[in-house]
Design a protein that fits this description.
- By secondary structure, the protein is of the alpha/beta class.
- 36% of the residues lie in helices and 20% in strands.
- The protein has 11 helices and 10 strands.
- Helix 4 packs across helix 5.
- The protein is globular and about 60 Å long.
- The protein starts with 6 loop residues before the first strand and ends with a helix.
Length: 291
Protein backbone atom coordinates (compact mmCIF):
# COMPACT_ATOMS: atom_id res chain seq x y z
CA UNK A 1 0.00 0.00 0.00
CA UNK A 2 1.56 3.29 -1.05
CA UNK A 3 1.35 6.60 0.83
CA UNK A 4 -1.56 7.88 -1.24
CA UNK A 5 -3.81 4.90 -0.43
CA UNK A 6 -2.81 4.31 3.20
CA UNK A 7 -5.80 4.58 5.54
CA UNK A 8 -5.61 7.82 7.51
CA UNK A 9 -8.98 7.95 9.27
CA UNK A 10 -11.50 5.13 9.45
CA UNK A 11 -11.62 3.78 5.87
CA UNK A 12 -10.36 6.99 4.24
CA UNK A 13 -7.01 7.49 2.64
CA UNK A 14 -5.58 11.03 2.58
CA UNK A 15 -7.34 12.11 -0.60
CA UNK A 16 -10.70 10.71 0.49
CA UNK A 17 -10.39 12.23 3.96
CA UNK A 18 -9.58 15.63 2.51
CA UNK A 19 -12.68 15.41 0.31
CA UNK A 20 -14.85 14.50 3.31
CA UNK A 21 -13.69 17.60 5.21
CA UNK A 22 -13.57 20.04 2.32
CA UNK A 23 -16.94 21.72 2.96
CA UNK A 24 -16.33 24.44 0.39
CA UNK A 25 -15.40 21.88 -2.20
CA UNK A 26 -18.83 20.26 -1.93
CA UNK A 27 -20.73 23.43 -2.90
CA UNK A 28 -19.62 25.13 -6.12
CA UNK A 29 -21.22 28.49 -5.31
CA UNK A 30 -20.53 28.53 -1.56
CA UNK A 31 -19.45 32.20 -1.70
CA UNK A 32 -22.99 33.16 -2.71
CA UNK A 33 -24.23 31.75 0.59
CA UNK A 34 -21.68 33.72 2.58
CA UNK A 35 -22.91 36.86 0.85
CA UNK A 36 -26.48 35.84 1.61
CA UNK A 37 -25.61 35.64 5.32
CA UNK A 38 -24.22 39.19 5.14
CA UNK A 39 -27.12 40.59 3.12
CA UNK A 40 -29.68 39.12 5.48
CA UNK A 41 -27.75 40.45 8.48
CA UNK A 42 -27.77 43.94 6.99
CA UNK A 43 -31.52 43.61 6.42
CA UNK A 44 -32.02 42.47 10.02
CA UNK A 45 -30.17 45.51 11.34
CA UNK A 46 -32.26 47.77 9.11
CA UNK A 47 -35.56 46.28 10.27
CA UNK A 48 -34.97 45.49 13.95
CA UNK A 49 -33.66 47.30 17.00
CA UNK A 50 -30.05 46.23 17.42
CA UNK A 51 -27.56 47.24 20.08
CA UNK A 52 -24.22 46.91 18.33
CA UNK A 53 -20.71 46.38 19.67
CA UNK A 54 -21.43 45.75 23.33
CA UNK A 55 -18.10 44.92 24.97
CA UNK A 56 -17.94 41.58 26.76
CA UNK A 57 -14.16 41.77 27.32
CA UNK A 58 -11.11 43.98 27.01
CA UNK A 59 -9.93 42.93 23.55
CA UNK A 60 -11.08 44.95 20.56
CA UNK A 61 -12.68 41.86 19.00
CA UNK A 62 -14.67 41.04 22.13
CA UNK A 63 -17.88 42.71 21.04
CA UNK A 64 -21.39 41.43 20.42
CA UNK A 65 -24.58 42.57 18.72
CA UNK A 66 -27.80 42.21 20.66
CA UNK A 67 -31.23 42.12 19.03
CA UNK A 68 -33.66 42.60 21.94
CA UNK A 69 -37.05 40.94 22.17
CA UNK A 70 -40.19 43.03 22.20
CA UNK A 71 -40.92 42.14 25.82
CA UNK A 72 -38.74 41.98 28.93
CA UNK A 73 -37.89 38.65 30.51
CA UNK A 74 -37.38 36.97 27.13
CA UNK A 75 -35.34 33.82 26.59
CA UNK A 76 -31.88 34.45 25.13
CA UNK A 77 -30.47 32.70 22.05
CA UNK A 78 -26.74 33.16 21.40
CA UNK A 79 -25.57 32.26 17.88
CA UNK A 80 -21.95 31.36 17.08
CA UNK A 81 -20.98 31.73 13.44
CA UNK A 82 -18.99 29.28 11.34
CA UNK A 83 -16.17 29.97 8.90
CA UNK A 84 -13.58 27.24 9.62
CA UNK A 85 -12.59 29.06 12.83
CA UNK A 86 -10.81 31.52 10.47
CA UNK A 87 -13.41 33.74 8.78
CA UNK A 88 -16.79 35.49 9.10
CA UNK A 89 -18.00 37.73 11.90
CA UNK A 90 -21.13 39.04 13.56
CA UNK A 91 -21.57 41.24 10.49
CA UNK A 92 -22.43 38.04 8.61
CA UNK A 93 -24.34 36.31 11.37
CA UNK A 94 -27.49 38.19 12.39
CA UNK A 95 -29.64 36.56 9.70
CA UNK A 96 -31.49 34.48 12.29
CA UNK A 97 -32.54 37.51 14.31
CA UNK A 98 -35.79 38.40 12.46
CA UNK A 99 -37.33 34.95 12.90
CA UNK A 100 -36.26 34.42 16.50
CA UNK A 101 -37.03 37.97 17.69
CA UNK A 102 -40.45 37.65 16.06
CA UNK A 103 -40.76 34.36 17.93
CA UNK A 104 -40.16 36.13 21.25
CA UNK A 105 -36.44 35.60 21.90
CA UNK A 106 -33.54 37.96 22.46
CA UNK A 107 -30.89 37.18 19.82
CA UNK A 108 -27.16 37.65 20.52
CA UNK A 109 -24.27 37.34 18.05
CA UNK A 110 -20.66 37.73 19.31
CA UNK A 111 -17.38 38.30 17.56
CA UNK A 112 -14.36 36.36 18.82
CA UNK A 113 -10.70 35.91 17.98
CA UNK A 114 -10.06 33.71 14.95
CA UNK A 115 -7.21 31.48 13.80
CA UNK A 116 -4.31 32.22 13.25
CA UNK A 117 -4.48 34.71 16.14
CA UNK A 118 -5.67 32.08 18.61
CA UNK A 119 -6.09 28.33 19.06
CA UNK A 120 -9.43 26.58 18.72
CA UNK A 121 -9.50 25.53 22.38
CA UNK A 122 -8.63 29.10 23.46
CA UNK A 123 -11.49 30.32 21.25
CA UNK A 124 -13.85 28.16 23.31
CA UNK A 125 -12.48 29.60 26.53
CA UNK A 126 -13.01 33.14 25.21
CA UNK A 127 -16.62 32.32 24.42
CA UNK A 128 -17.03 30.96 27.93
CA UNK A 129 -16.16 34.44 29.16
CA UNK A 130 -18.63 35.89 26.65
CA UNK A 131 -21.44 33.69 27.92
CA UNK A 132 -20.60 34.62 31.51
CA UNK A 133 -20.92 38.29 30.48
CA UNK A 134 -24.30 37.57 28.89
CA UNK A 135 -25.50 35.85 32.06
CA UNK A 136 -24.44 38.82 34.19
CA UNK A 137 -25.72 41.59 31.90
CA UNK A 138 -28.60 40.36 29.76
CA UNK A 139 -31.31 41.33 32.23
CA UNK A 140 -30.53 45.01 31.64
CA UNK A 141 -31.35 44.41 27.97
CA UNK A 142 -34.62 42.57 28.54
CA UNK A 143 -33.29 39.01 28.53
CA UNK A 144 -33.79 36.35 31.18
CA UNK A 145 -30.41 35.09 32.48
CA UNK A 146 -32.07 31.89 33.68
CA UNK A 147 -33.04 31.02 30.08
CA UNK A 148 -29.88 31.18 27.96
CA UNK A 149 -29.60 28.91 24.92
CA UNK A 150 -26.76 28.54 22.43
CA UNK A 151 -26.64 27.62 18.75
CA UNK A 152 -23.84 27.35 16.24
CA UNK A 153 -23.13 26.38 12.65
CA UNK A 154 -20.11 24.49 11.30
CA UNK A 155 -17.03 25.59 13.30
CA UNK A 156 -19.46 27.56 15.47
CA UNK A 157 -21.17 24.26 16.26
CA UNK A 158 -17.86 22.96 17.58
CA UNK A 159 -17.68 26.05 19.78
CA UNK A 160 -21.16 25.27 21.09
CA UNK A 161 -19.88 21.80 21.95
CA UNK A 162 -16.98 23.37 23.84
CA UNK A 163 -19.42 25.48 25.86
CA UNK A 164 -21.32 22.30 26.74
CA UNK A 165 -18.14 21.00 28.41
CA UNK A 166 -17.04 24.29 30.05
CA UNK A 167 -16.18 24.26 33.75
CA UNK A 168 -18.48 27.08 34.85
CA UNK A 169 -17.03 27.02 38.36
CA UNK A 170 -14.10 28.94 36.85
CA UNK A 171 -16.47 31.86 36.18
CA UNK A 172 -17.38 33.48 39.50
CA UNK A 173 -21.08 33.30 40.25
CA UNK A 174 -22.12 31.70 36.95
CA UNK A 175 -24.39 28.71 37.62
CA UNK A 176 -23.39 25.27 36.38
CA UNK A 177 -26.66 25.09 34.43
CA UNK A 178 -26.22 28.45 32.68
CA UNK A 179 -26.82 26.72 29.30
CA UNK A 180 -30.42 25.57 29.18
CA UNK A 181 -30.32 24.06 25.68
CA UNK A 182 -28.25 24.00 22.51
CA UNK A 183 -28.41 23.61 18.75
CA UNK A 184 -25.55 22.12 16.71
CA UNK A 185 -25.81 22.56 12.92
CA UNK A 186 -23.36 20.84 10.56
CA UNK A 187 -20.94 20.40 13.43
CA UNK A 188 -18.10 18.09 14.41
CA UNK A 189 -17.89 16.21 17.70
CA UNK A 190 -14.37 14.91 17.06
CA UNK A 191 -11.69 17.14 15.54
CA UNK A 192 -9.19 14.33 15.02
CA UNK A 193 -10.04 13.88 11.31
CA UNK A 194 -9.74 17.64 10.87
CA UNK A 195 -6.24 17.44 12.38
CA UNK A 196 -5.38 14.67 9.92
CA UNK A 197 -6.80 16.55 6.92
CA UNK A 198 -5.47 19.34 4.71
CA UNK A 199 -7.32 21.86 6.89
CA UNK A 200 -4.77 21.52 9.65
CA UNK A 201 -2.22 23.42 7.56
CA UNK A 202 -4.15 26.53 8.63
CA UNK A 203 -5.56 25.40 11.98
CA UNK A 204 -2.46 24.00 13.69
CA UNK A 205 -4.30 21.42 15.80
CA UNK A 206 -2.24 19.02 17.87
CA UNK A 207 -3.53 16.00 19.73
CA UNK A 208 -3.93 17.92 22.99
CA UNK A 209 -6.05 20.59 21.30
CA UNK A 210 -8.21 17.91 19.68
CA UNK A 211 -8.93 16.35 23.05
CA UNK A 212 -9.60 19.71 24.71
CA UNK A 213 -11.91 20.99 21.97
CA UNK A 214 -13.86 17.86 20.97
CA UNK A 215 -17.16 16.98 22.64
CA UNK A 216 -16.60 13.26 22.15
CA UNK A 217 -13.32 13.45 24.10
CA UNK A 218 -14.78 15.44 27.01
CA UNK A 219 -17.27 14.99 29.81
CA UNK A 220 -20.34 17.20 29.36
CA UNK A 221 -20.81 19.85 32.02
CA UNK A 222 -24.33 20.73 30.89
CA UNK A 223 -27.48 18.66 31.30
CA UNK A 224 -29.88 20.09 28.78
CA UNK A 225 -31.69 19.29 25.53
CA UNK A 226 -29.70 19.31 22.30
CA UNK A 227 -30.88 19.65 18.71
CA UNK A 228 -28.47 18.29 16.09
CA UNK A 229 -28.97 19.06 12.39
CA UNK A 230 -27.04 18.29 9.23
CA UNK A 231 -27.79 18.72 5.55
CA UNK A 232 -28.68 15.57 3.64
CA UNK A 233 -26.28 16.77 0.95
CA UNK A 234 -23.27 16.98 3.26
CA UNK A 235 -20.45 14.44 3.15
CA UNK A 236 -20.77 11.01 4.72
CA UNK A 237 -18.42 11.82 7.58
CA UNK A 238 -20.15 15.11 8.42
CA UNK A 239 -23.44 13.22 8.65
CA UNK A 240 -21.82 10.47 10.69
CA UNK A 241 -20.33 13.02 13.07
CA UNK A 242 -23.71 14.69 13.57
CA UNK A 243 -25.33 11.36 14.36
CA UNK A 244 -22.47 10.66 16.76
CA UNK A 245 -23.02 13.93 18.61
CA UNK A 246 -26.70 13.12 19.15
CA UNK A 247 -25.92 9.58 20.29
CA UNK A 248 -23.17 10.78 22.63
CA UNK A 249 -25.47 13.34 24.21
CA UNK A 250 -28.18 10.77 24.77
CA UNK A 251 -25.66 8.30 26.20
CA UNK A 252 -24.90 10.88 28.90
CA UNK A 253 -28.53 11.00 29.94
CA UNK A 254 -29.57 14.11 28.00
CA UNK A 255 -32.39 14.49 25.47
CA UNK A 256 -31.33 14.94 21.84
CA UNK A 257 -33.18 15.32 18.56
CA UNK A 258 -31.54 14.63 15.23
CA UNK A 259 -32.56 16.35 11.98
CA UNK A 260 -31.28 15.40 8.55
CA UNK A 261 -32.33 18.33 6.38
CA UNK A 262 -33.57 17.21 2.99
CA UNK A 263 -32.21 19.17 0.04
CA UNK A 264 -29.72 21.09 2.19
CA UNK A 265 -25.93 21.25 2.06
CA UNK A 266 -23.27 22.59 4.39
CA UNK A 267 -23.89 26.26 3.67
CA UNK A 268 -27.68 26.44 3.58
CA UNK A 269 -28.48 24.09 6.47
CA UNK A 270 -28.19 27.06 8.83
CA UNK A 271 -30.67 29.02 6.70
CA UNK A 272 -33.26 26.31 7.37
CA UNK A 273 -32.66 26.84 11.10
CA UNK A 274 -33.55 30.52 10.54
CA UNK A 275 -36.67 29.70 8.48
CA UNK A 276 -39.90 30.07 10.51
CA UNK A 277 -41.55 27.45 8.30
CA UNK A 278 -39.03 24.71 9.09
CA UNK A 279 -39.35 21.91 11.62
CA UNK A 280 -35.87 22.77 12.94
CA UNK A 281 -36.91 26.37 13.65
CA UNK A 282 -40.09 25.20 15.40
CA UNK A 283 -38.12 22.72 17.51
CA UNK A 284 -35.63 25.44 18.48
CA UNK A 285 -38.40 27.84 19.44
CA UNK A 286 -40.13 25.12 21.45
CA UNK A 287 -36.88 24.35 23.29
CA UNK A 288 -36.27 28.02 24.00
CA UNK A 289 -39.81 28.33 25.29
CA UNK A 290 -40.54 31.69 23.70
CA UNK A 291 -44.20 32.72 23.94
Amino acid sequence: MNATTRKIWRDYDQLALDIQYDSRGTVADFAAYLERYAERTRAAKASLPCIENLAYGDQDVERLDLYPAAHAGAPVLVFLHGGDWRTLSKQDSGFGAPAYVEGGACFVVPDFTLVPDTRIDAMGAQLGRMLAWVWRNIASHGGDPSRIFIAGHSSGANLVCQLLTTDWAAHAGVPADVVKGAVVISGLGDLEPVRLSFRNEHLGLDRAAVVAASLLHCQPSARCPLLVAVGAGETDDYRRQSQGIAAYWQAHGNPAQFFELAGRHHFDSVLEWADPNSALFRATLAMVGAP
